[in-house]
Amino acid sequence: MAYTLITANRNYSSWSLRPWLLLRALGIPFTDRVEPFTKPSNYDEFRAFSPTGQVPVLLDGAATVWDSLGITLYIADRHEGVWPGDATARAFAQCAVAEMHGGFSALRGQCTMNVGVRVKMGPHDAPLTRDVARVREIFEQGLERFGGPFLAGAQFTAIDAFFAPVAYRIRTYALDVGRGQAWVDDILAHPAMQQWEAEALAESWREESHEAELAAAGALIADYRQA
Fold this sequence. Notes:
50% of the residues lie in helices and 12% in strands. It has 227 residues and is of the alpha+beta class. Strands 2-1-3-4 form a 4-stranded mixed beta sheet, with helices on one face. Strands 5-6 form a two-stranded antiparallel sheet. InterPro entries: Glutathione-S-Trfase_C_sf, Glutathione_S-Trfase, Glutathione_S-Trfase_N, Thioredoxin-like_sf. This is Glutathione S-transferase family protein.
């Protein structure tokens, strides 16, 4: 197998992080190709390798696999460890992954992923409050039911990959996830996450629309980006 995973900027691209982290954490080899966001819409350029004009995209020989969930399902068909072995934990993980993939619009919209900064937000509106409460509930339920340290048990699986961008958001915006903070601390310390963060901090790219979303979220109180 000779996978190539195409992703975008480490600092901004939450969708890219999910399959990248899954492959890294499970020790599945791949060629790492970065196509950075350079403007608000990169659709035309990204259409050269992605049918949706978006990332991430996995290339496997003649196969082009797009969308973070599509890539996860493709990898699960070919490798062990993507989903928990226990049936109850697997059902929990698959439901949570689907919920994360299709939901949490307020969290996505109001707390854009920006790995290298810290922001002081004002009061949360009702949609964001609901999203944060639901994240907290998933984290606490997963840790309590399956014993941790990961969200569906002792081993890293796809549920951890799908909520990993949320861990960065929780840190950036100081979101309260109660006892779920234990998972946040653990996943941020994961060697693959440490690698992603180091690369994010070293990036020189700044994309205007992502930076505008950050400014709208609240007051910037720290910026650890090196470039």
